[in-house]
Each structure stands twice: as structure tokens, then as C-alpha cells.
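pls ignore typos typing on phone
adenosine-5'-triphosphate + seq
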Amino acid sequence: MSSLHSTDNMLLTLKQVRLALGGRQFGPFNLMIQPGEQVAILGPSGAGKSTLLKLLARELTPASGVAQFEQRPLQSWSLAALSYHRAILPQSHEVVFDLPVEMVIGLGRVARTLDPSLPTIVQQAATQACAAHLLGRRFDTLSGGEKARVQMARVFAQLWDVEQGLLLVDEPLAALDPGLQCSLMAAICAFAAQRGHALLAILHDINQALQGFERLILMKQGAMVVDYPRSQVTLPMLEALYDVQLDAALTDSGTLLVAPSMKQALSPTRFHVWPCTENHEDHFY
Ligand SMILES: Nc1ncnc2c1ncn2[C@@H]1O[C@H](COP(=O)(O)OP(=O)(O)OP(=O)(O)O)[C@@H](O)[C@H]1O
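k done
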């Protein structure tokens, strides 16, 4: 587990980080991410996954604890300086103005005043995100899945010529058909691996997480309940995470597939209320 590593070479470190939003308590978060690590974050809706990602992106300020990026306090980084090292794909990504696709992708590099390679990088990033055919279109005329790929290209463009950065993606596959989900997930992992970027990906697809990631973080009710290598994550852990019975099957090629059991009626306990005053240290199981 990451907790066994020294903090010296860590890209990202959270120690006892807590956060309060709208009366809810998040954390304490203890997390260490090494350069180049690829980690999937799973959890039910409202578990706090996006909140954790925003914290890591320096969009939210911890109430207490230590948050470091490249061994410096996260809050001491200016957003401009940080944008050279980390990029985030948020869950929703509407653009207010009717911008050309090229300009939306180029927004990833807006912090760079001199950027002679911008047109080349925009083209290459669009290709990597399966969005090259959308160049020349207006962003507001695109479908949901097309917009998602253009926004992924924007994130690729931001870290295109950077090494050992941090890529944070929040449900990057949500608007995509199954074929595109596989292509884009592979493209994101390859993009990060080629440059040594660490990748933290919030996913709702358990199979994408199990097949593509070596380390899984499971979140529930504002806390990280599990941070394990994939091989140590069990079906009962996933069932407890989502309060749902899961069926598992091994394909002919040896791939494990997991799906909610369709025989099980929806349990009312799935929709329990998250008490604001709960002690979040009690969630480990
Ligand atoms: N700014 C805020 N003010 C008040 N409550 C907030 C705020 N941001 C998030 N929350 C609440 O915190 C909880 C966690 O939200 P978050 O977006 O992190 O969940 P999530 O795990 O990403 O969910 P989903 O899978 O549905 O996207 C939710 O109940 C949400 O309503």
C-alpha cells in the first residue's frame, strides 16, 4: 500500500485532511500518489469523489491537515503554476460561449503566453481523444459524447509537453457508447503512461476500474474506506460499497466481469441519508 512508501518522492500527499461543505464533513483523507501511478476511484453517488478530486486540484481548501503537491503545500501553488503540472477534467463541462472546437482544446494551454506549438498540439490532442473529426465544428453544436471527447482533448493539450504531472478525471466515460468508452479509457491511460503522469480517475464502471487500474480507492459517505491494490479488492467490498448484490463471471479469455444482480430488488437501504454529524473514521470495513 502507498502508506508504506516514504513521502520524499511522492507527487501528492494528503495527511489527515478534512473538509466541510454544506454541513457535511469529508475525510480525514490520507493519501500518497507516486509519479506515474494510475488509480481508480469508485463509490456511490454522493460519496464525495468529486469533492476529493477538487481538493487535489486545489479548487477546494482543506479545513485541516496537510496537502502537498511535489513536496510543497498545495495551497502555496498559484493556479497558473499548478496548471503546468496538473490538469482536471470536471464532471460537467459546458462552455458559455459558442466557441470553435480548436479554441476549447486550446483553452488547456491558456496559461502559456508564448506557445508556438499550440496548433500542432491541439491537432495531436484531438487525435489522442478520438476527436480529430470534430475540429472545425462549433462546440455548442456537438453531442454530449462529442463534447466529452473535446474536453478530454483540452486536458491532453494542457499536459501534452509536460512530464510527471497529475491528471485528474471525473467520470470521463459517462457520455460515451461502449466502444468509445474502451477507446478513450485506453487513450487516457496511454497518454498518462507515455509522459509519466499520475492518473486519478473517478469511474462508475466497475469493470473499467478492475481491468485498467492496479490500485483502487473506494469512497463512501465522505471518506476513503479502502485504498488497495486491485488484487486485494474483493466482491464483498464492492457489494458493501454500493449496497447491491453483484454477480461475477470469468470470460473465456480470463477476464473477470462484475455486474449488479438483476434478480435483486432495489433495497431501501441503498438510499439511506448521510448524517452530517457522523464520525467518518468508522467507515473502514
Ligand atoms: N459546494 C457544496 N455545498 C454543499 N454540499 C456539497 C457541495 N459540493 C458537494 N456537496 C455535497 O457533498 C456530497 C458529495 O458530493 P460529490 O459531488 O463529491 O459526490 P460524488 O461522489 O462525486 O457523486 P456523483 O457520483 O453523484 O458525482 C453530495 O451530497 C453533495 O450534494
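Residues 2-233 form a domain with the Rossmann fold fold (CATH 3.40.50.300). The chain has one domain: 2-233. more later
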